[in-house]
Amino acid sequence: MEDAKNLLPNELRSFMVSLEQPSYRGDQIFSWIHKHLVCSFDEMTNLPLTLRQRLKEIAYITRLNVRSRNEGKKGTVKYLLETYDKNAIEAVRMEYQYGITACLSTQIGCKMACSFCASGVGGFVRNLSAGEIVDEALRIQEDVTAFGANVGNIVLMGTGEPLDNYEPSIKALRILNAKSGLGISFRRMTVSTCGLVPGILRLAEEEIPVTLSISLHAPTDDVRETLMPINRRYSIVQLMDAAAYYRERTGRRVTFEYALIRDINDSDRHACQLADLLREQSGHVNLIPLNPIDEKDYMRPTTIRINSFSKILQEASIPVTVRRNLGLDVNAACGQLRRRYCR
Ligand code: SAH
Fold first, then answer.
1. How many Å lie between the centroid of ligand 1 and the Cα of residue 311?
2. Same domain, 19 and 129
């Protein structure tokens, strides 16, 4: 069975041609699914009845089941979604001054096992399909349609490592970009990675100008290895080279995420090392005070420490922001809601 939500407009056109239909039927189906948010062929009233009947026999349209919406402050809503095989995934809706952002998961669980992150705690279950990733955004779009809004930004920063589920993740972005669907510009999309160097190099060749966000979290290999096992495969130097290549090839600035963890990576010395490391990169640093998780005893630094760390970067002319903790009150980011559900 073919999942029609998994297909790009050109693939839906070929699919129609393979059924001896005119190719524009593919565009009609794409817009039913991605603009009108329809999840059954029966509702596609401009298709001939016989075609709808045939499609029901050979295809389906993924629809995640919304199990709960957890509302936090300032328009943040955490969605707990259920897949057809009864796995739980998370997506988050955030409202910023520049519109609604959907933060999407790309895998069920995660293999990367970063020591401070809840997503890897239960291990890896399976990859999400492009259709499932897209549907996370469509579930959010369905809700905001009610107040006349649109999902305008996509960040692949939910559970999972997008570059470890490369094709479906990138395909989902292409589907979300298609004009006859949500039509979200690639410049308003961010791919976040823990540092899979070959994936970064491959992404640089896709000719989709998405923002690359690198979860760095440490200025030296010694510290990074204690937090992120991936650093044993790809060192910081390799990662910096890949980031520079991405910037050159796409003309897009790279963002570096840095979760501040008390007494682990938050000293003034770490800040100076980070400034040295990033001086050549012309990247932007996003400091995230750690969101403590139940499974680990890492703590977030004091506000004084956070400010001191950020000041050192500013003084070194490294652009830096401290992330608002939109997630904290809704257990957002980092797989915490899903963990609660699975327990
Ligand atoms: N695998 C990708 C995307 C998912 S994680 C990546 O690693 O980038 C999204 C971001 O949340 C990453 O920067 C991740 O390191 C960070 N994160 C995970 N657990 C966190 C926690 N407990 N507190 C703060 N940030 C966390």
1. 23
2. no
